[in-house]
Design goal:
By secondary structure, the chain is of the alpha+beta class. It has two domains: 58 residues; 68 residues, no CATH class. 46% of the residues lie in helices and 11% in strands. The protein is built from six helices and three strands. A three-stranded antiparallel beta sheet has the order 2-1-3.
Amino acid sequence: MKINTTRVNMVLKNEAIPADYLESEIGISRSVVEKVREDESEFKNLTLDVVAKIQKWIDDGNYTFSYDYSDLIEELEEDIAEGLVDEYIYVVRGPYNELLEKCPIIDYYYTSEEIEEGDLAEKTLITSVLAEMKSDNKIF
């Protein structure tokens, strides 16, 4: 199991998830969660057992991390409706996002000639681009 400490810490710090819920769902002590949230205990002092249980809970699909693609999705769907794009576009990705565990899409171009100097763009099917953005845009 690969442990993503950024993700685990975000779950622990997310006060929208009640500490007693984490206790009953994952089997970690509510007081451990509360101490981390109240800065009485540091994340680095958690046991590997606690961190592994949270990571497994995340890996089992109980918590997802999203990225706000709302504007970019709307823009691309408008471009498609207007017939401005073909089957493929050129997407530009930002820096690695540890929560998403990938580089998010930050922009796109219609043709390779439009790619601005310094941008690295990958040729991708529009359907794949929209599917990725919509999947990452979901908030559960």
